[in-house]
Amino acid sequence: MTISDLLQTTSEAPLEAAFSAQLQSVKERETKGGKPYREWAIADATGGITLKLWNNHPQWDASLEIDPETFLSFHGEWTKNQYGIDGKGWKFRFLNEDERNDFLAGDPVTRAKQDTDWAVILDALADLADPRLKALCDNFISQFGDRFRRTAAAKKNHHARRGGLVEHVAQMMRSALALHPVYPELNRDLIIAGVLFHDCGKLWENSYPESGFNQLQTLHGEMMGHIPLGLELVNKFWRELALDAWKDLEPSSENVRLHLLHLVASHHGTHEFGSPTLPRTPEAHALHYIDNLDAKMEMVRDSYKNSNESSPGIYERQFPMPAGVVAPLPSVPREDAVEAKETPSSVSTELFGS
Questions:
Q1: Burial letters for 303-330: b for 16+ Cβ neighbours within 10 Å, e otherwise?
Q2: Are residues 150 and 63 in the same domain?
Q3: Does the pTM exceed 0.85?
Q4: Alpha helices (runs of H) in 84-243, residue ranges in sequence order
Q5: Mutual angle of helices 188-198 and 131-149, in 10-degree steps
Q6: In a domain, 54, yes or no
Q7: Quick one: 330 and 293 in the same domain?
Q8: Number of domains in the chain
Q9: Which of 198, 201, 252, 284 has a 20 to 30 A CA-CA distance from 160?
Q10: Does a structural domain hold residue 307?
Q11: 121-178 per-position pLDDT tens digit
Q12: What share of the chain is helix, strand, coil (3-state, %, to 5)?
């Protein structure tokens, strides 16, 4: 079982289950009554949770010797409430070497999805017509592809897992490609490159080590943030291009560079949310809303997965959503739907668990 499975299947009724995770952090806490306890933040390839370790736990003393980044197996009875996952009678043990290697490989479902999403990204980049943008993207993937594939899209809230940035960028590319025929004024090559680079600074803000599920903290990420880092990275790769070969190509290389930088700088949409400038082009507006839509849809999925039903079809509010979600309305099957083709109803069921 994975942490994602645990979140989806656990309810107020106890569920006996075992799963593996990496200890990310340990915090010493104390109740209002002075009772000490520890908060363990643990994670696997699918996500993370926090466990409370009370001072009457049979392995309380042994837990003093457990350091962050340790790989552990957990077994017990698990319930879920408004505060998260709670365990009863749970115990932990160290993973052996074979178990550790299997765990680091990631669960097969997540690994297969991210492999598919990575192929979507590479296919979209291979189809770029502007040779400058194609060379820029190819150089970035060649140099930082491995790091990209183990980076999260955020520290929390959406796609906050190893490889989450690949999932986020691939889905944004699917959306951009679907929208281009609807809004043909969009520069297809520019928006695809913008999707790739909009969060590239997160390779230093939300990345993971080669072997582990504990997000790294870097001085660059903490002191600069992903938007300034993204601007610097685009400029770095742009300076390395052999631009003389395209000096007669229109639009000019300088205009292409400036428009791409604008996408990175404005993708949060407002100054309030960290963008140093506001969207001023069709691609910038589209990129902002595509980014926001995919983040919000992931949060909705997480709300269905992580929240308890307060009443049938009504779920408790899950931060950072503004309100609790309600079960989605299934689609009526279309008469002309091809059996082998996924219908809107099946998509709704798969995404939202209705």
A1: bbbbbeeeeeeebeebeebeebbeeeee
A2: no
A3: no
A4: 97-104, 108-126, 131-149, 164-179, 188-198, 219-224, 226-239
A5: 30
A6: yes
A7: no
A8: 3
A9: 284
A10: no
A11: 999 999 999 999 999 999 999 999 999 999 999 888 888 888 999 999 999 999 999 9
A12: 45, 20, 35
